[in-house]
Amino acid sequence: MRPAAAPPPPPPLARVAPALFLGSARAAAATEQLQREGISLCVNVSRQQPGPRAPGVAELRVPVFDDPAEDLLAHLEPTCAAMEAAVRAGGACLVYCKNGRSRSAAVCTAYLMRHRGLSLERAFQMVRSARPVAEPNPGFWSQLQKYEQTLQARSCATGEALATTSLPPEGAAGVQPQGSPDPAQSPQTRTPPSPPAH
Known about the structure:
Strand order of the largest sheet: 1-2-5-3-4
Helix content: 25-40%
Structural class: alpha/beta
Number of helices: 6
Distance between the termini: 62 Å
Strand content: 5-15%
Largest sheet: 5 strands, mixed
Order of helices and strands: EEHHEEHEHHH
């Protein structure tokens, strides 16, 4: 018997969210598809891969290798801001690297955390379900964990003024994690809260 055929390679790009696509370097060369999907910004998470060739598509290069020692964290905030600006302007973003596996998957995950309010676990589930080969290297994963902690701390700081009323329990449906509460204050938030008003 013949050995089983290798699975076909994943398509060059996959839709992660309504205006967010993830793909390999081949996706940047798929001019017709970029135009069909309304992509206005390509985030090229590599030092060497070519930029998009489609007219009217901007490129933002994040110059990192797929190396756990690379500092991707330093690029996440400005990159996510540029992506959100493109989406708010009515466009869509394609994030890609050589194989659409590690670097670009990490950036897509960070964007969903930063601008869609998802936890790291939920954001990566979305990325992985859209592109099953997605797998940030261990260094990038630990940087995403640090980024999540930063976002949670920021959320706590900005939400303190609103925290005078009782808070829903941690893990309640639809409630974003707020990071570790102040130990001195945690016993006072144990009373069962009333459901949030809609």
